[in-house]
Amino acid sequence: MTVDQILSLRPELYRFLAEFDDCFGRSEPREHLQHYVRGQLSELPRKSVEPIATFNDIAPRTLQEFLNSDVWDHARARDTVQRIVARDHEDPKAIGIIDDSGHPKSGRKTPGVQWQYCGRLGKTANCVVTVQFAFSSFDTRFRTMLDTKLFLPESWSNDRQRCRDAGIPDDVVHRPKHLMALDMLDHAQANGVHLEWVLADIWYSEKPAFLAGLEQRNYRYVVEIPRNLQGWLYDPRRGPEQTPRYPARDVEHLCRHARQMMRQEQTPFHIKNTDKGPMVWNVKSAPFWLRRGDQVLSGYHLIWATDPLNPGEEKIFLVHDPLQDTLTTWLHIGFARWPVERVTQDKKSELGFSHFEVRKYHALIRHFTITMISNLFLARQTERLRGEKSPHHDQPSSRGHEHSHPFVLV
């Protein structure tokens, strides 16, 4: 946004931020929320405290205190974001997307920082990791972040003095990311957010407890899975004990060599339009019986998608859908990560999500929360500028048709 654009939207922004007034007991921090959001929506190249304060012509110390010590309820602000989405953006086929994000940082004092895998860099590095939870309408035209949580490594959790030095409460301990994600889904549901589908990064699908947790919560899901996940393309159970008659095989082997796949012709599906032209993937699918521990579980589908322009590029999806929707819908869900990845990138680069330069836990969480507020305002303005929604959904099509709606940054 340019300065002129921010000024033109100021009344709309202030009406939106007024929804968060009950998170603040005093007027000063309420005004600082306006300052922080305006800075995040600006064209500042770096959106940390000092440049945001300069942009708003206030002292940097004022915003530092706003993040660190001012009395206001950032958890309530997060809940307000979720309730606004539930109230104004309800979609009976809404998609929830779980992913995590790495934020490279130097030093060792930023809460949660350590040498760990950083997806942003594609390698192990000194970084902070957050678990991200996003909301998308089924047509993917409205998408925003619902929650962000700091992943606390075991090395931090086991060193409580280090945690106290960073302002991390004693009840904040290490939890596996997939269990954090399930908690986030539960919290959003308690705030009225309805999700019909869940989509998750491949790391989460490797965790049987995560998939079991989604099923227990009655979510339909499409997740990309590792090649060594095991199962069958037929029901292997025989006899009164209903035990598998044949060993499970890796899904990579099943996709390439099982008769159920080899007998199929590849079906080209037009996924979406890109700057380089249409994205088309070739697809095969089959019912799937999943091995989970010693159990054989039915009611799944396996989808094998390959990129004809890049023969080495493939995706294997696991579908859990008791309502048995169409392959077109499943592919639409499976490939829905791209707009949400765009949201994450906008948060990092356009809104300064990764620009935090704080050393205390509450300041870090408050920065995350305010970025979600800025992101929601941006998403609402983008939807408004697009005008009325198309009556058609942006789904992959085996006939090569798609309704494309590029992201608009106001």
Helix fraction by DSSP (H/I, runs of at least 4): 25-40%
Order of helical and strand elements: HHHHHEEEEHHHEHHEEEEEHHEEEEHHH
What profile does the largest beta sheet have?
12 strands, mixed
Distance from first to last alpha carbon: 6 Å
| Structural class by SSE content | alpha+beta
**Content of β-strand:** 25-35%
Number of helices: 15
Low-pLDDT stretches are 388-394, 399-410
Strands, total number: 14
Using only CA atoms, what is the Rg?
A: 23 Å
The shape is globular
* pLDDT averaged residue by residue: 88
What does this structure look like?
With 410 residues, the protein is an alpha+beta fold. It has a domain at 219-338. 38% of the residues lie in helices and 25% in strands. It has helices at residues 3-17, 27-40, 49-55, 60-68, 74-88, 154-157, 160-165, 177-190, 202-205, 208-216, 251-257, 259-262, 327-334, 337-350, 361-386; strands spanning 95-104, 114-118, 123-136, 143-150, 197-200, 220-224, 230-232, 237-238, 243-244, 249-250, 267-274, 277-292, 295-307, 310-320. The strands form 2 sheets. Strands 1, 2, 3, 4, 5, 6, 7, 10, 11, 12, 13 and 14 form a 12-stranded mixed β-sheet that branches. A two-stranded antiparallel sheet has the order 8-9. A hairpin with a 2-residue loop joins strand 12 (277-292) and strand 13 (295-307). Helix 3 (49-55) crosses helix 4 (60-68). The longest helix is centred in the last third of the chain and has 26 residues, at 361-386. The radius of gyration is 23 Å and the shape is globular. The N and C termini lie close together (6 Å). 39% of the residues are buried. Mean pLDDT is 88; it is low at 388-394 and 399-410.
